[in-house]
Amino acid sequence: MPTLYILAGPNGAGKTTYYYTALEKKFIEQHLPFINVDVFTKELGDYTAENFAKAEMIYREKVAELLKDKTDFMIESNLARDSDYEWIEKVQKYGYDIVLYFLCTDDINVNINRIHRRVKEGGHDVPVGIIMHRYKAALSYLKTKLHLFKEIYFIDNSSDEAMEVGYKKNNNIIELLPAPPKWLDDVLSIERRLQRKKNN
Predict the structure, then answer these.
(1) What does the angle CA 186 – CA 190 – CA 196 come to, to the nearest 5 degrees?
(2) What is the pLDDT of residues 115-155, one digit of tens each?
(3) What is the chain's Cα-based Rg?
(4) Long-range contact set of residues 55-61: C-beta below 8 Å, sequence gap at least 24
(5) Residues 154-180: pLDDT tens digits?
(6) Short-list 95, 102, 42, CA closest to 78
(7) Which of 22, 94, 120, 166 could be cross-linked to 28 through a Cys-Cys bond (beta carbons 3.0 to 4.6 Å apart)?
(8) Bigger pLDDT: 46 or 106?
């Protein structure tokens, strides 16, 4: 069965930086196609509206081709909209397993400061209001959608070094720290309640 890998988290969570680090450490397979709108935009030149629109078209074409061939691949996403999860469910019905790498921070100011730093280095900007909305939305959606994923790697990226703090495999959720980050506590709150009900 083919697998769709999703590298997800709010803006400023450090997804793209983590991707290249994970490649070096062989946590993510190097041969896996990585379909990323931001990367395509950068390849086209400056972060203009025109280049971004072209990059989105390239993204859609490449994803459609990989799905048609039932090839394993990875995408990057905020997972902060209904439509993101509707698309995941369609891909599942098409015969794909879904594996999620979810990155987050315990302090939204970390995200905001990373994006400000990225802009100074020539990267694209994201308004603070959108960063805050997507941060809350990504966590809110994920806590009700854990069942969609065959595997989830929960990664805290609040500091300079990303750390795996939990994972889900075959409907079992394992927390790797005695005191998990606040965002992971939030994401797992519903799942814990369901587990307690089942065990009582």
Answers:
(1) 120
(2) 998 888 777 789 999 999 999 999 999 999 999 999 999 99
(3) 17
(4) 59/35
(5) 999 999 889 999 999 977 888 888 889
(6) 102
(7) 22
(8) 106
Task: Please report, for residues 11, 31, 98, the alpha-carbon distance to residue 23 in angstroms, rounded to integers and kept in the order given.
Answer: 20, 10, 19
- Token couple for 145: 């959608």
Q: Residue 16's domain is classified under what CATH number? A: 3.40.50.300
What count of other Cβ atoms lies within 10 Å of the Cβ of residue 178? 5
Q: What is the torsional sign of CA 85, 26, 21, 177?
A: positive
Sequence-separated (6 or more) residues with CB below 8 Å from residue 200: none
Residue 165's domain comprises 3-199
Residue type (1 letter), 80: A
Q: How is residue 179 written in tokens?
A: 């005191």
Which tokens sit at 73?
């691949």
Q: What is the mean pLDDT of the chain?
A: 91
Strand partners, 99: 5, 151
Contact between residue 104 and residue 13 where contact means Cβ atoms under 8 Å apart:
yes
- Distance, CA of 34 to CA of 88 (rounded, Å): 17
The count of domains in the chain is 1
The SS3 call for residue 77 is: strand
The predicted model gives 64-91 an average pLDDT of 96
The pair of structure tokens assigned to 151 is 């595997």
Torsion angle of C-alpha atoms 192, 194, 198, 200, degrees rounded to 10 = 70
> Is the distance from CB of 116 to CB of 60 less than 8 angstroms?
no
